[in-house]
Amino acid sequence: MEAFWKAARSMLRYRAMLAAALCCAIVSGSALGGGIMAAAPVIDAIVGQERTLAEMARDFNARSPIDIPESVIAGFPVKPFHAVIAVMIGLSVLTLIGATTNFAHLYLSMTVVERTVARVRRDLFRRVIHLPLRAVVAGGSSDPVSRIVNDPQQLSTGLAALISRGVAQVSKGIASFLAAVLIDWRLTGITLLVVPGMYAVIRSLGRTIRKASRAALGKQAMLYAAANETLQGLRVVKVYTTERYESGRFHRINKEVLAHILSARRARALSSPLVEGMAVLTIAGLTLIAVKAVFDEELDPADMILALAGLGIAGASLRPLTGIINDIQQSAAAAERIEQMLAEPSEPGHDPSLPRIARHAESIRFARVWFTYPGGDQPAIRGLTLAIPHGQTLAVVGPNGSGKTTLLSLVPRLFDPDDASPEGGSGGAVLVDGRDIRTVAVRSLRRQVGVVTQETVIFEGTIAQNIAYGADGATRERIVEAAKRARAHEFIESRGGYDALVGERGLTLSGGQRQRLAIARAILRDPAILILDEATSMIDAESEAHITAALSEFSAGRTTLVVAHRLSTVVNADRIAVLDRGELVDLGTHDELLARCPTYRQIAERQLIASST
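Above: the chain's sequence. Below: its structure in token form.
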């Protein structure tokens, strides 16, 4: 529960609004309590007692610590009917005040809740995008998405229950209870005997609700993962006719979610009847005691009716507290997951005290680098040492799983080398111009890197926005120039220009068009280091010709690292690094490697030559 109360304390950011909401709740509750007290003349008239308002006021002063001034009593109506009229007018005014302040309390409190939840959601998103990529790879993307979208919504239910419904019901219940105390404290005091029993029931069931809700939220993240994975691969699902399998997989996870939700619902359903049953038995016992006191002339009939009415209204106001407490318990599970995510360490390299690295002008060097993916039993990179002079194009080739993409991912520090190698030494380092990239501001490094990958990421928005992604302040002239250099200007104009919208993930564009937009994006960034990860492996020959021409022109004077299966790309590289099982097997030109490296010769025959035909 500590995580929930921590989230609740974050609402204190809006102290003025909270204070106003609390004042409105107190006024609303006081209006209800005042209405119960003011109903005495009406009850007297019903039961046939002939007492004036002045006599009732003096009786009240005699048994209550609160005194009504005699000057006020002197102005009360004398005739009973006139007194009833005055009371009804007063009750109408109190009702209007209570309704108005109740609306104001609910509006202000819900505003505080929604603003707080919006801040939590923003903080979660900010934390997730600053997580180390290693952590996201290990846990998958669906759980963070669930924590960003689902958990704050669940938290808002508990926060709303606390300061909206909870405060409103408690203020009304307390006001009604105090009115009953002022009317007859002895009768009212008996109700306190059942409070410990109610507390024990609510506390026990609350634990069950919190535990089941925590498990349900975890399974819902798995549900997100299953749905997202299936929809993103829907073409494969249909082609391989695995609709039944995917439906069964989703159904199994959905049943687990349902089981946990029903467990929480059972506890919620059980709590309300138990508490209500205890309340009804208490009121029944109080009624018997009160009637006996009236028969023994120890209690005024009107006071008995008002006291029981006050207790009944207090009970009715406090009855929803069971559901409110259950909502808070259910939200506590979401609050724990949110706190856990916010406590995750951020990606290293963002410390403001770290120095910026100058624009790359000398070399990139891998110094005995070891790297192992989270949960992996074998290193993906094994003690690799390699130097690339500035302005050189290096092609990286190797069998599938040899560590090509992993090696290139170390340059912009998407991953860090292992802390230690299996041999007992350090895990190595990546150096740019002689500086370990772990000792510099990571943003200053990444601003020098342009990336074009096999699967181009296109965001929903306009074509111009996609090209200018990450290039703050880019003008339309620069965007158009970048598109022209990327051989993308003609197709952009044919599709409605730079303000034309592209759908989610760029599915309205062809593969070659997406690649050319990605190249335009890299050109606009003007990087010193260009990383091309199989940028032409999934496109047709015509698109490849456009892209190859654009990349050849753009890569001049830049350090270019290429992972490719195309023979033309490899042959034109200054040097070729051959990887196998994370190790550097050989390094040289195409002709040199064909002559001396069996691994490269095999790759050239099976992959490079085949892909170029």
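The radius of gyration is 37 Å.
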